[in-house]
């Protein structure tokens, strides 16, 4: 059973990034108050990097006990460690290097020069095993995710689940992606079934190029044709948009501002 879907529209991309940053800090504080720890799935892309930079600048970030935050990634470009194309490299540069994190709780997806070798299928299996090892014993193959962040591609992809690509049909939690329509061509990704185990999923999008996929996803497009339409958090699915990305959202979804 999936929870409520809501849409929050902010006037400008900068305000959107600031608001998502503040919202994420509060979500982490709340999770730690309730469970003693918090778990976030990070994403890549331009708007995500803006959110990470905004968190870095917010004094309230010190209200989070970063040593008790687990960080996972929703997708990764399968290139060598440290490559600036990697989503984890971008997140580290924008934010993570400035936080007192517990390295044992930072879980980047494997790199092409990592222990699994230059074999994306083996790397996907290794990440699935790492996730399963963090899951509650005797339960699912995935740990609890408090908040899972997603960007939205111009074609409606989320993480590295691309429209009409075999990965859009994948039921295993982690998949290799070959022949990505967006470079680089080889990637790793959580699949839609794995994404949809998160308590809250936040889809963050800014700019006019995102208006069509966002509008179509909220209007009920098919998840294979438009993976963003197949995303739903267990308790909440939250679309966080700037005004341009929200341009094609039907008025009935514009419940919050
Ligand atoms: O390639 C990717 O693109 C999407 C969207 O990025 P954006 O720059 O258009 O916001 C991102 O969510 C994903 O993590 C990344 O690998």
UniProtKB/TrEMBL annotation:
Its EC number is 3.1.1.31. Keywords: Hydrolase. Pathway: Carbohydrate degradation; pentose phosphate pathway; D-ribulose 5-phosphate from D-glucose 6-phosphate (oxidative stage): step 2/3. It comes from the Bacteria. It catalyses: 6-phospho-D-glucono-1,5-lactone + H2O = 6-phospho-D-gluconate + H(+). The keyword Hydrolase applies. Belongs to the glucosamine/galactosamine-6-phosphate isomerase family. 6-phosphogluconolactonase subfamily. This is 6-phosphogluconolactonase. It comes from Plantactinospora siamensis. The lineage of its organism: Bacteria, Bacillati, Actinomycetota, Actinomycetes, Micromonosporales.
């Amino acid at each position: 059973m999936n929870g409520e879907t809501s849409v929050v529209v902010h006037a400008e991309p900068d305000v959107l990034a600031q608001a998502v940053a503040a919202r994420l800090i509060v979500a982490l504080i709340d999770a730690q108050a309730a469970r003693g720890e918090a778990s976030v799935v990070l994403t890549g892309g331009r708007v995500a990097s803006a959110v990470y930079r905004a968190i870095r600048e917010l004094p309230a970030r010190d209200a989070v006990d970063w040593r008790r935050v687990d960080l996972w990634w929703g997708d990764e470009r399968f290139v060598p460690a440290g490559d600036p194309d990697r989503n984890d490299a971008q997140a580290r540069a924008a934010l993570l290097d400035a936080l007192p994190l517990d390295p044992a709780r930072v879980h980047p997806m494997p790199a092409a020069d990592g222990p699994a070798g230059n074999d994306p299928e083996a790397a996907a299996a290794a990440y699935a095993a790492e996730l399963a090892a963090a899951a509650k014993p005797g339960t699912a193959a995935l740990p609890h995710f408090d908040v899972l962040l997603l960007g939205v591609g111009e074609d409606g992809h989320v993480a590295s689940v691309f429209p009409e690509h075999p990965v859009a049909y994948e039921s295993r939690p982690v998949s290799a992606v070959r022949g990505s329509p967006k470079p680089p061509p080889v990637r790793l990704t959580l699949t839609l079934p794995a994404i949809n185990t998160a308590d809250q999923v936040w889809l963050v999008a800014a700019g006019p190029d995102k208006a069509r996929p966002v509008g179509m996803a909220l209007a009920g497009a098919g998840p294979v044709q438009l993976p963003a339409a197949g995303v739903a958090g267990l308790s909440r699915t939250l679309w966080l948009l700037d005004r341009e990305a929200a341009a094609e959202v039907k008025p009935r979804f514009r419940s919050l501002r």
